[in-house]
Specification:
Layout (H helix, E strand, L loop, with lengths): L1 E2 L4 E2 L18 H4 L2 H14 L8 H16 L2
Antiparallel strand pairs: 1-2
């Protein structure tokens, strides 16, 4: 599902992604703090739930803050 502020649209993935020769998967221990974030995200996607912990607009605001700090350093 793709969620916007006022609607939800089902996304259909028709083709698998080729990760290239030699790809053996990720190592969970290398993910650090991202592991729980990925578990939450995939759980929302699998169960059709809206992401509430960190929305796209939260990410946009965070990026704008960081870019402002870089530009004013």
């Amino acid at each position: 599902m793709l969620y916007t502020d006022d609607s939800a649209e089902e996304i259909v993935i028709e083709k698998e992604t080729d990760l290239g020769e030699g790809f053996e998967g990720g190592n969970i221990s290398d993910l650090g703090g991202y592991f729980n974030e990925l578990v939450y995200f995939t759980d929302c996607v699998k169960n059709g739930r809206k992401i509430e912990k960190a929305t796209l607009s939260d990410g946009v605001e965070s990026l704008a803050f960081v870019l402002d700090e870089i530009n004013n350093a």
